[in-house]
Design brief:
With 221 residues, the chain is α+β, with helices and mostly antiparallel strands. It has eight helices and five strands.
């Protein structure tokens, strides 16, 4: 009970409201779940939890005395008489230079700036694909009955079609596979079956040898 008493009700209420809005977007965007992918249910719950957590923590952040003062002084400076127009006109340029281009990092190190740009735009592009898929705003439909061509549909609007064996799709898939990812266990080896996982261990002589663990297939599952 003591832990429940520390929950900020106002922040929790706004977090629930944000979750309900996201659910409404998912329901409307997927045509009342008509083309919602059931395999993405886990991602949807994770996204809803993240939305609640971000809204809740941001409102808590705004109510703390130091950050509340910072937020208030920032808005006072932005709405200062005689400078509102200039501040509003300069805001897009600041967003581009500080957020999108991150020019303040380039002045310190070009290699560090390039690394930040790759991470930033990689996350942006991933979000532009992942969240529409999770909310049902984006899905793919087969063109014809042979499964060789697919159409990208945004909401109920069909956009472009692509071949399942096109060179551009192969190139993008190869690039995605070549991108390194940080994880505790390495990716499954292609030559060891679809459900195999590869790990490494150090022998008594100090050499590293791979250990391949195959999953057992159960008949009828």
């Amino acid at each position: 009970m003591g832990q429940l008493a520390t929950i900020d009700r106002r922040a929790a209420t706004w977090g629930v409201v944000a979750v309900l809005v996201a659910l409404a977007i998912a329901g409307l965007g997927s045509g009342n779940l008509r083309w919602f992918d059931a395999a993405l249910v886990g991602y949807l719950f994770g996204t809803l939890f993240a939305i609640f957590a971000v809204v809740y923590r941001y409102l808590i952040w705004l109510r703390r005395p130091p950050t509340a003062l910072l937020n208030r002084r920032g808005w006072e400076a932005f709405r200062r008489p005689g400078r509102r127009g200039r501040n509003a006109a300069a805001l897009p340029g600041l967003v581009v230079s500080n957020l999108m281009v991150q020019s303040f990092i380039r002045g310190r190190s070009r290699s560090r700036w390039l690394a930040h740009q790759l991470v930033f735009w990689g996350c942006v592009l991933a979000a532009l694909v992942t969240f529409p898929l999770v909310f049902g705003l984006l899905h793919f439909e087969s063109v014809g009955q042979n499964g060789r061509e697919y159409r990208t549909v945004v909401g109920e609007v069909a956009t472009f079609s692509f071949a399942s064996r096109s060179e551009s799709l192969r190139f993008s898939t190869s690039v995605a596979r070549a991108m390194p990812s940080i994880q505790l266990r390495s990716a499954p080896a292609e030559n060891d079956g679809p459900l195999a996982s590869r790990r490494t261990t150090r022998t008594s002589s100090g050499s590293v040898r791979p250990i391949v663990a195959r999953s057992r297939h159960v008949a009828g599952v």
